[in-house]
Hints:
Layout: H1 8-20, H2 24-31, H3 35-42, H4 50-60, H5 75-78
Amino acid sequence: MEIKSTGWVSANLRAARARSGITQSELAQRSGISANSINRFERGLVDPRVGQLIRIARALRVLPSSMLDEVKPTAEDAA
């Protein structure tokens, strides 16, 4: 059974990284996860496993649960 990504994790990850002001490479270094994987997570190609999500959240200094919150469309998304 294939589980489709909701895109919430990728959107939340991109936003959290942008707020922290670090690059994908810096996040990769801080989390111990490859930059290629971080890029794939942010593009929504794959979702991180739970352990990876926790490591990313720690590197970004956010709660892991914040990565799972549903992203509500904004006016900018509709444009």
